[in-house]
Amino acid sequence: MRALSGWRPSLRMAWREVRRSRGRSILVLVMIALPVLAVTAADIVIATQDVSGVESMDRRIGAADASVSFTTGAGRVIQAFDPDDGMTWDSESDKPAPGVADVRRALGRDVRTVERWEGSTVVSTDKGRTDALAAEVDLADPLTAGLYDLTDGRWPRTEDEVVVNADLASRGPGLGEEVELASGDVRRVVGIAESTTYRSHPSIAGPVGSFGLSERTTDHTWLLGAGPVTWDDVLALNALGGTVVSRAVIAHPPPDSVLDPEIASWAGGTDDAWLAIVALVVVMALLEVVLLAGPAFAVTARRQSRTLALMAAAGGTPRQGRRAVLAHGLVLGSLAAVLGVGLGIVAGRLAVPVAQRWDSTWFGPFDVPWPHLLGIACFGLLGAILAAVVPAWIASRQDVVAVLGGRRGDRKASLRSPILGVVLLGAGVAGAAYGARSTSNGEFAIAASAVVAVLGMILLVPLVVVTLARVARRLPLVLRYAVRDAARHRTRTVPAVAAVAATVAGVVALGIALSSDELENRATYVPQVPMGDGVVSFGWNTDATAADADAVVAAAEKSVPGLRATAVQGVQTDRPDGSYTFLSFAAPGGPQQLLSSYGGTFGSDVLVADRVPPGDHLGIDAAGRERADSALAAGGVVALADGRLVDQVAGLDRVRARVEEMDAEGQPGAVRKRTFPGAVVTTGSHSIGPQAIVSPAAARRLGVPVVPANVLLDGASIGRGQQRDLDEAVSAVADQASVYVERGYRASGETVVVQLVLAALGAVLMLGGTLTATFLALSDARPDLATLGAVGASPRKRRGVAASYALVVGLVGAVLGAAVGFIPGIAVTYPLTGNSWDLGGTAASHYLDVPWLLIGGLVVVLPLLTAGIVWVSARPRLPMVARLD
Amino acid sequence: MNATLHLDDVTRVHGSGPTEVHALRGVSFRAHAGELVAVMGPSGSGKSTLLTLAGGLDTPTAGRVVVDGVDLAALGGAGRARMRRTSIGYVFQDFNLIPALTAAENVALPRELDGQRSRAARKAALAVLEEVGIPELADRFPDEMSGGQQQRVAIARAVVGERRLILADEPTGALDTDTGEEILRLLRARCDAGATGVLVTHEARHAAWADRVVFLRDGVVVDESGADPVDALLEPGMSR
Amino acid sequence: MSVKQALLALLEQGPMYGYQLRVEFETRTGSTWPLNVGQVYTTLNRLERDGLVAGEGVDDDGHVVYRITDEGRDEVAAWFTTPVARTQPPRDELAIKLALAVTVPGVDVGTVIQRQRTATMVALQDYTRLKRAGRAANPARPDDMAWSLVLDSLVFVAEAEIRWLDHCEARLRRAVRTAENTATFEAGQPREVNR
Fold first, then answer.
1. Do B52 and A793 count as a contact with CB atoms less than 8 A apart?
2. What is the CA radius of gyration of chain B?
3. What share of chain B is helix, strand, coil (3-state, %, to 5)?
4. What DSSP character marks residue B231?
5. Which of A713, A808, B137, C15 could serve as A534's disulfide partner, Cβ 3.0–4.6 Å?
6. Spans in chain B with pLDDT lower than 50
7. Alpha-carbon separation of residue A401 from A405, A407, C138 (angstroms)
8. How many CB atoms lie within 10 A of CB A142?
9. CB half-sphere exposure, B114, CA atoms < 13 A
């Protein structure tokens, strides 16, 4: 109790100080609580999104105690406690599939079972057909409760009743309507039910036998109502060849030692890189919190110095004086931590539905990871204590004589820190250069050196501020005053400028990395066909007929007005029975290898036609097309070559084709070689396409089967909605056909979101730092403002002074931060965009895109905006000289 | 003759109810061009209030304050600020220089606030600093000057730009005797050159530099000393 | 006030006659304390009787010229080096007046004080005006410096007087307030007091 009693006066004083200077206390609270709030909310959203084993039980096995799945051809199964974490099986192809009796025998007791099949099926819609997730299970059985969520109607009772989810209902079959399956059978929709796992994909469910899944699916599942299914039960079922998801085992797993060693080696293994990143983020965030809250504590320390002196006069020791400062940090830190966590939970609760919208799987139940939150709260507390202690330590080294003489302002800047700062900055640059050059894990070297560089920059800020003050003579009055005053009160200015600079440096570095990455993705993107055109490909081993091709052409032209659809045939290289034909082409007298790669979405890598198909899909230019047309008309073969070989292939007029057959078991068969008159033309695009076009006569001579390969689409732009309709129309006439429309490179939504989040975070922190400094500066400057008023400054001048403070802090911080941020930003683009392979040798090995808009916004617009906000919100009246006689 | 400064039946009350303080009660006061008027009184007599009212830093509860023919109450805050930039100069007891600006910049402050270009304002400032005798301190900061030098800078700031009314609130309070006399000599010179000066002081010696001395007590003018000379003190051979 | 030593000090500069002495005295002290000739001659006679000066006969205009003796010189030296004693303060008319005003009923002491203060202030203003212009402003010769110092003494004395008057006023007001409070306390009701 002795220890605590020593703290009591300090804590009491701290509490009173907090209540006395409300403005400053609220500022500090906000500075510390905000990051805590943000991290808490993010953690909650992530934890909620993460559907852990236990949480997912209901959606995987409904109300059952376990489910067991038998895969066709599976012998003994080895699995982890949760088979999703790891599972493998021995292959035993001629074992008969186990049944319910086998399960009962393995478990040694009677169980209630509900059969379940899962797969996909094709369903007709208003516009045609679509793929849908299908499940066959008796939804009326209570054991299945939780697999689907019935929102309208009722569960299906007979074999011709089904439920669909809202997504499928919107495409066609709604409640009470009929839905046609691929087999031609018709079912009636009696209810709308959402799958508890998948949110945005069409899904349909019905009793066992509705969709004929048992013929198509390899996994036969039973839901078991067997009382708790223990690990021993699981092992017994594993021996039968069943994979078991057991509620009891997953909720209370036995010790890891009972796992099969093969599975045990998969699990675990924390990601070292992930840890490093987390550590880095924590350090930077802590730094930011200290820098932002520091100035407020500094001012408090200054004002407290008189109280501390009185305490010393009343018999207090220096240790008790230090305790007072620490107590202040403790009180505010605890308040802020509690506030931040509490509000963070609320914010997380509100953010979960918003985040859900972006995710296609359902989130789990609302999850509050309490251990994490405790850690976050401690982090906030630590930040507050540091922010309190550091300025107090600096203040204790103040020039006593100056303080007694009533001269406001800090000691002259020593030269020690700037030298250290230059050294650190140099180390940061060197580290970044090293990381840029190194071949592996350069990113970590760069990240570490970035932190070092930022620390060095922070040490240089005082020098910059003082130098700026010296050359301020040319500035207009209000700016001149703000700059000089900032230099005089470095204790409160430097942390704010440093906070802004550190933020901007981080944002600039990350922004450059992201943009350059995007640029690389964009530049290395290889379009498959010209922009806006499309291809309907029949798949590599289909048995589509010419009638199917015509039907697709008709359907396509009907779906999209103005579209030109051309059916093209090709050699059937993959056959349904498993046999394979391998073709290759060469030109005698020409280059060894004509194409660096081929394949693509054309349904076959060898097309069969008597002239080059219309449209630009193959990238053949006019001259080449002329040569190719004449060669094909003469019954020859046109081989395609890379664009860079254009000169070497221009004069070639013969093509040698080699055909190698392989049977269903993979045994090589006959090899045929034929030479044809023909041409070699170059494809202008880098995309992966067919390797040759052969005329029908040549195909007959080669003895290869010819089938419809694709339908080329061009001539009209195909919108997204139209593409989906087209998809369904095509599926209606040809099951295996798929539609591809070239839309160019699409930035993944994720990247855009990350950039926006980065910009928003940077803006918020900049705003926070600048406003802190301005608020404190204004309260410090009351005497000067009074003088200005007495000397005749108009009342609006106060706004000007406030805005100038904000401008100085924001601009200096942003410029410094941007300059330092370039170093790691540019350095990291080297390992990030370095290519170890390229297509056709034209891709650059380094991409650099500087997001000038982002940087310009941060460095120029944001400080001006902040100054503008301060201008608008500052109180216009100047404090008048209040003299008491 | 038009008075540069005219307080007409001015009353100033601070606070309300039981804690009311009557700083001035129905005070009428005039000061003319070329005249230096001293205001004396114990603390609580209202002398500083008189000065802040004259300078437009405060508004009377009743009565009018007229400077150069302009009723200060009729002007808004901005108008009064303009008066302080161009017509009225204020000298404080504790100098009130802005530490972040050099001496020349402090002196140039009213001109720059009024919109004059830095260069022209600096020139005017240097000229006035010369007048008060400290041209060499133009680029020093207030931290680097003695009290007397700072007060001279403050006076320079109050007179730059040919201000017509100079209000000085105990300008010699923090200074030693000789330096104080120097300050008063400066003020006197300005008034002789045509400005109007109002000087609040509790030092009789310094008040004696004025043409008129007004005595305030409890917010009321109780007496005023005119300017009739005492014959016996004439030097032999001189006549008035 | 005795001007004995002052005249002796003047005679030390050289022999003079009565009227000359008077002019010389008034010049150096700015006619602050005017002398009449009769007073001068009476003092000279006494000095001669005491052996500090000696008559030198008559000059061409018929004036009696006096000369300082050695004893006189000693006397002058002693006078300069001996501080003026303050054990017997000169009779101060103002102090006497105030003392009586306070104790004689029916006299408004406050008005007395205020009137005196204003008058002294006027005098102070005049002294200051003289200090600013004329010989005392920039003392070039020792005579001017002498005059300036005398003027300063008048200034300081006047200032001291005003300060004393302020002080008396404050004390009297405090005394009245205390008496009021005591009366209120004793009688239980406020009492009007003339001030």
1. no
2. 18
3. 35, 25, 35
4. G
5. A713
6. 1, 228-240
7. 6, 9, 41
8. 12
9. 22
Question: Which amino acid would we find at residue B23?
Answer: A
Beta bridge partners of A142: none
Q: Determine the angle formed by the axes of helices A370-395 and A272-313, rounding to 10 degrees.
A: 50
Cα A23–chain centre separation: 39
- Using DSSP, state whether A874 is helix, strand or coil: coil
How many CB atoms are closer than 10 A to CB A466? 18
B233–C130 CB contact, under 8 Å: yes
What is the distance in angstroms between the Cα of C94 and the nearest Cα belonging to chain B? 18
Token pair 């005749």 is at which residue?
Answer: A792
pLDDT in tens, A194-231: 887 777 788 888 888 888 777 777 778 888 887 888 88
C71-85: pLDDT as tens digits: 988 988 888 877 776
Helix B103-113 crosses helix A477-488 at what angle (to 10 degrees)?
Answer: 140
Nearest CA in chain B to C115: B223
State the Rg of chain C over Cα. Answer: 24
Domain boundaries, chain C: 4-81, 93-187
N-term to C-term CA, chain B: 23
Q: Domain map of chain B by residue range?
A: 1-87+164-226, 98-162
How does pLDDT run across C50-99, given as a tens digit for each residue? 899 998 888 788 888 899 999 988 988 888 877 776 666 666 778 777 77
- 3-class DSSP state of B5: strand
- A462-503 pLDDT tens trace: 888 888 888 888 888 888 888 998 888 877 788 888 888 888
Closest residue of chain B to C157, computed from CA coordinates = B205
ipTM of the complex: 0.81
Chains that touch C (3 or more CB pairs under 8 A): B
- Tell me the fold of B1-87+164-226: Rossmann fold (3.40.50)
Burial group, residue C157, by CB count within 10 angstroms (0-12, 13-18, 19+):
middle
Predicted model pTM: 0.66
Query: Can chain A be said to touch chain C, i.e. do they have 3 or more Cβ pairs within 8 angstroms?
Result: no
Q: How far apart are the C-alpha atoms of A174 and A178, rounded to whole Å?
A: 8
The whole-angstrom separation of Cα C151 and Cα B99 is 40
Of the candidates A239, A240, A332, which has an alpha carbon nearest to the alpha carbon of residue A294? Answer: A332
Topology given in CATH for the domain delimited by C4-81: Arc Repressor Mutant, subunit A (1.10.10)
